[in-house]
Amino acid sequence: MTAPLIWQKSSFSHEEGECVELATVDGAIQLRESDDPDVVVTTAPHPLRTLIRGIKAGEFDHLGA
Question: What integer pLDDT is reported at residue 17 of this predicted model?
Fold first, then answer.
């Protein structure tokens, strides 16, 4: 039997949902939206770190316009 995942959300998340949650499994990172928890994306730490740095640097701001 597999242990249940421990999902963590950002301290910046709202209590009403609308947040991204993360869990680790065998060195991989799993991401899901709290309002659609059945859809899970799996990635490795390095690509996720690169994505987060790009978001913080504003590299994707033009996509939200």
Answer: 66
Name the amino acid, one letter, at 14: H
Q: What is the largest CA-CA distance in the chain?
A: 46
**DSSP reduced 3-state for 42:** strand
Interatomic CA distance for residues 60 and 41, integer angstroms: 19
41, 31 Cβ separation under 8 angstroms: yes
- Read off the amino acid at residue 24: T
DSSP at 63? G
Q: What is the pTM of this model?
A: 0.74
Residues 6+ apart with CB under 8 A from 32: 7, 20, 21, 38, 39, 40, 41
